[in-house]
Write a structure and sequence with these properties.
Elements: E1 5-13, H1 21-39, E2 47-51, H2 53-62, H3 64-75, E3 79-82, H4 96-114, E4 120-122, H5 132-138, E5 143-147, H6 148-153, E6 165-169, E7 172-179, H7 181-186, H8 192-205, E8 209-216, H9 226-232, H10 235-245, E9 250-252, H11 255-261, H12 276-281, H13 285-300, H14 304-307, H15 319-322, H16 324-345, H17 351-362, H18 380-400, E10 408-413, E11 422-427, E12 430-435, E13 441-447, E14 452-453, H19 466-470, E15 509-513, H20 519-523, E16 539-544, E17 548-559, E18 562-573, E19 578-586, E20 594-603, E21 612-615, E22 621-624, E23 629-641, E24 646-669, E25 672-688, E26 695-705, H21 707-721
Helix pairs in contact: 2-3, 4-5, 16-17, 16-18, 17-18
């Protein structure tokens, strides 16, 4: 063949902040290391490689010899290191200061450790907004990789995508490369000859073209069934052999080489978007189903290829609306980012400030902030990790600000950017955030000593893929296929676990149920809500004292068709790890019983482990935290997570019935559909009746003891010193 084509292979290797150490190790053994083994002998081949900061820090700690090998390949000109934002955040959700800071920080790290010259970057999840151009260029980046889908949304056709373009914002210029969706589905799932044939067709139609493959390195060994396919069956070896054998017309290049050798095809301005699948996942569940139905109908009619270039799905930022729990993480991240920026503006400089910035950047890792074919926000250990780093940053910023020792604070602000003020009670031990406009609920409870948000919960909600679960499926798939095409059930009975919550699973949410309602009905979210308090608007006010603060929430609402006033007061004292809660109901009937319940949610305490369990007032074990419990005439209940080192005690001043039940969602990941434990609900409930004045009250205390974790940490520090 006389016509030539350039192929830029751009690999993106990533493991999220908070992923289990054994998952990092397995991905290293299954993907990153064997890929290097196969690649190194092919001296004529070139690739561009992006490794996320969360992964590269793990590699530096556990396999520095791998990074040494990369550095040698960089020095030999065979591997171009692609930079990016250090901890793989979605750039669209960051303020400009953090976008630029993350990119510059990672560029410096890569240059120091690998001897790389970093000119290009990987756009996390290819989530793009045109205004990001300015910040990316200001961070010192010259070019980036997007999907061809972005360019088609800008009106370009397939034959206009074999090269790169220039884009601009506010006078800053950036070069952008379109990654081929065709290659994403060919590599490595089809025989190498299919890829060579496709590239030959491009070369015949457009001599001297550039084709870019940009996708996850985990496709080569970590994705289901790919280890056998790629390495044991020799797919990657054959692919590289084909590339080398066709070197007379097919040249592998780095992005840096392509940029130097080729002129841009022109200028383009790209609409906001991501890769095609991500834009579909960002839609509401019902709209995803409609989208898929319309697509299938148009495919049946043979019209889809004509329509597809003009079809766009949802907007990534709407994941914060689709999953309010994402918005909570985002708002907490923004609180920390703004506080750090404010302290920097005072001229503060310290190691603690630098460490806080690193913790903030880690808390911006994207994986927990969305959901699609991967677990994302459905994975509790990833959500917990985000909060752990954000709380760690806050603790460090306290030291920078000189806020040490016993203290307590109450303030109100629109912390979550919903146009309504929230209330924060904070001390040296706890941070509690309340939402008066939505049930006066406690929606975040940070335990500073263990850097854990006990309310990093997730509600059960309908997902588009639940239609596949209701339709049944199979237990495995022997064929190697893209994760987007797999339907695998990791356990049986998932269709019976599809329950949907009316509201978020938070704390101090107030319910009125039928007097004869069962635990099963409440746990499965089928019990009728007979009050308007759980998500209704409360009036709020704060009281501040030298040694304690109070937040009071009042609503004049309706319960069981009757006008009822509910007031709850939460008190936090300086130096204390206890929230004292006082409830008072007014307007209750004196001749009738109403069923009143208060919901507490606790996240990050796994079920099905013997060292995580309930206990009664006599500290007798009641079973693992995944148990449903129905207790009568109790004055308290406790939960222990020995691994985390936390002991949570709920004390109730008058005898109460108590329900407990787990919240389990049914979600999909790259491995298939599965049930995931999200949180534990503890719900004291009473049949209440008004006194002579129609009143009823109860006091409760929620204490959080972290002495186990703190003693363990002190012992570890002493052992290190010794």
């Amino acid at each position: 063949m006389t016509n030539s084509v350039r192929l830029a292979l751009v690999l993106h290797n990533h493991q999220p902040i908070g992923n289990f150490d054994h998952v990092f190790e397995q991905a290293y053994q299954d993907s990153y290391l064997p890929f290097l083994h196969v690649f190194e002998p092919f001296s004529s081949l070139r690739i561009s490689l992006h490794t996320s900061g969360s992964l590269i820090e793990w590699l530096e700690a556990h396999h520095p010899e791998y990074l040494d090998r990369l550095a040698a390949l960089v020095a030999a000109g065979r591997v171009e290191i692609i930079g990016g934002a250090f901890y793989e955040p979605i750039l669209a959700m960051l303020p400009s200061r953090d976008r630029i800071g993350q990119i510059r920080s990672y560029t410096g790290w890569l240059e120091r450790r690998l001897g790389a010259t970093v000119s290009g970057m990987w756009i996390p999840e290819r989530v793009w907004e045109q205004s990001m151009t300015r910040d990316i260029a200001d961070a010192g980046i010259e070019y980036a990789v997007l999907d061809d889908y972005h360019f088609k949304n800008a009106g370009l056709t397939e034959n206009q995508l074999h090269g790169y373009y220039v884009t601009e914002d506010d006078g800053r210029v950036l070069r952008i490369f379109p990654g081929s969706e065709q290659l994403r589905y060919l590599i490595p799932f089809q025989d190498p000859e299919h890829t060579i044939g496709y590239l030959g067709q491009v070369a015949a139609e457009q001599p001297n073209a550039l084709v870019v493959f940009g996708d996850d390195g985990e496709k080569f060994g970590t994705w289901p069934d790919t280890k056998k396919h790629v390495y044991e069956d020799g797919w990657l070896q054959r692919f590289f052999e084909q590339l080398a054998a066709n070197a007379d017309w097919l040249k592998t290049v780095t992005l840096a080489e392509a940029r130097a050798e080729l002129a841009p095809l022109g200028k383009v301005f790209v609409p906001e978007g991501s890769y095609r699948e991500m834009t579909e996942w960002a839609l509401p569940a019902s709209r995803i189903v409609e989208f898929e139905n319309v697509q299938h109908e148009l495919e049946h009619q043979g019209q889809w290829p004509l329509v597809a270039p003009f079809v766009r799905g949802g907007f990534w930022r709407n994941f914060k609306a689709k999953y309010p729990e994402t918005d909570e993480m985002y708002a907490r991240m923004m609180m920390v980012s703004r506080r750090l920026a404010d302290l920097q503006a005072t001229g503060a400089v310290s190691e603690d400030l630098d460490a806080a910035r690193d913790e903030l950047y880690r808390g911006q890792c994207n994986c927990s902030y969305w959901h699609g074919a991967f677990g994302g926000i459905y994975l509790p250990h990833l959500r917990n990790a985000i909060y752990r780093h954000l709380i760690a940053a806050d603790n460090l910023l306290d030291r920078v600000a000189g806020q040490t020792g016993s203290r307590v604070l109450a303030d109100a602000e629109d912390f979550n950017f919903d146009g309504e003020p929230e209330i924060r009670l904070s001390s040296d031990r706890l941070v509690a955030l309340f939402d008066p406009s939505r049930g006066g609920r406690l929606y975040e409870l940070d335990v500073r000593a263990i850097k854990h948000n006990l309310l990093a919960t997730l509600a059960r909600r309908e997902e588009a893929y639940h239609t596949k679960i209701r339709g049944g499926g199979h237990q495995g798939d022997d064929d190697c296929a893209s994760i987007h095409d797999r339907v695998v059930f990791k356990q049986e009975g998932l269709d019976e676990m599809l329950h949907y919550d009316r509201d978020l699973r938070k704390s101090l949410q107030d319910h009125f149920f039928d007097n004869d309602v069962s635990l099963a009905e409440v746990a499965n979210a089928t019990a009728e809500e007979l009050g308007d308090f759980a998500s209704g608007r409360f009036e709020a006010r704060m009281r501040r004292h030298d040694d304690r603060v109070e937040a009071q929430f009042t609503r004049r609402g309706v319960a069981c068709g009757l006008p009822v006033t509910l007031t709850k007061t939460v008190t936090l004292a300086a130096g204390s790890s206890t929230l004292d809660v006082q409830y008072q109901l007014e307007g209750l009937p004196t001749d009738r019983l109403l069923h009143f319940a208060v919901e507490f949610g606790f996240a990050g305490l796994p079920a099905e482990a013997d060292d995580r369990y309930f206990y009664d007032r006599d500290r007798q074990r009641l079973g693992q935290l995944g148990r449903q419990i129905d207790m009568a005439d109790q004055t308290g209940l406790g939960l222990i997570d020995e691994w985390l080192g936390v002991d949570i005690g709920l004390s109730i001043a008058r005898p109460s019935n108590i329900w407990t039940f787990p919240i389990q969602s049914v979600s999909q990941s790259e491995g298939g559909f599965e049930a995931v434990h999200q949180s534990v609900v503890v719900m004291p409930h009473w049949l209440v009746q008004g006194d002579e004045e129609g009143r009823w009250s109860v006091s409760m205390s929620l204490s959080i003891d972290t002495s186990l974790a703190e003693n363990r940490r002190r012992q570890a520090e002493l052992a290190t010193v010794g």
